[in-house]
């Protein structure tokens, strides 16, 4: 039987122990693996593997020994409770042994859980599970998690008091990170809030979100956007000492000002615009960039983006003779003076 994407999350959290099997397949191996971990844990409990109620095998092992799966399904364990026979990285080459295991399955046998990559509609393995009366087949797509799924991850991590702004930031973050990195971020957030009774806020999300590649350049970019040209020189010296390359700094400045332009030109205003930008901006940095977008306005930000594009082209030009870092510093100073006009 097919399990719809809408019903799948609920089933993964509370699977039916009297089913013969479950096929989880999809293009993203990480998403498939996470769903498999979730459903197996729900079936056998956190101690199930230690109690030897989980038998693992991959497709290559099963091809060499086709009876391995049926033996695992029929085997009796030392500990009471549901059992799982798990086949990893399956394909149509193991459709025969899986068919035998499902055909001979009886109440009390181990449930067969199979994971696979992307399977065509004509796949023997997929047809087997979709046509079985006591087994499910579910496709895992690369869609971002729903709010309910995000709330489920937060609940598992012990985070039940999450503010609306923090939830908005987490939703945006879930669309930028792969599922594994997003779960790690939630776990980090859980540890960060350990012993803290206050609700999770946007500043907490910003503190735990993966650092962007522009983090070490943020100081000079904010100085420029906030029209403080006198502070640019000392920061530039520090960046030079750290080995920051002129082209990289120019590209970071271009991304920063394009983000400001996107926010300032949004029909709903800078506040709505900064919430829509990708990659998302979090916490205090978002508020700061929102103020910058309001101060500049769309027209001046368009000029700024043009100036940075011209500077980037000059840096890459074969006829460029001026020192690269000096050229970038002069452009940043011009930008810082521009907003005062």
TrEMBL record:
GO terms for biological process: DNA-templated DNA replication. GO terms for molecular function: DNA binding; DNA-directed DNA polymerase activity. Keywords: DNA replication, DNA-directed DNA polymerase, Nucleotidyltransferase, Transferase. It catalyses: DNA(n) + a 2'-deoxyribonucleoside 5'-triphosphate = DNA(n+1) + diphosphate. SUPFAM superfamilies: post-AAA+ oligomerization domain-like. Its EC number is 2.7.7.7. GO terms for cellular component: DNA polymerase III complex. PANTHER family: DNA POLYMERASE III SUBUNIT DELTA. Belongs to the DNA polymerase HolA subunit family. This is DNA-directed DNA polymerase. It comes from Roseovarius indicus.
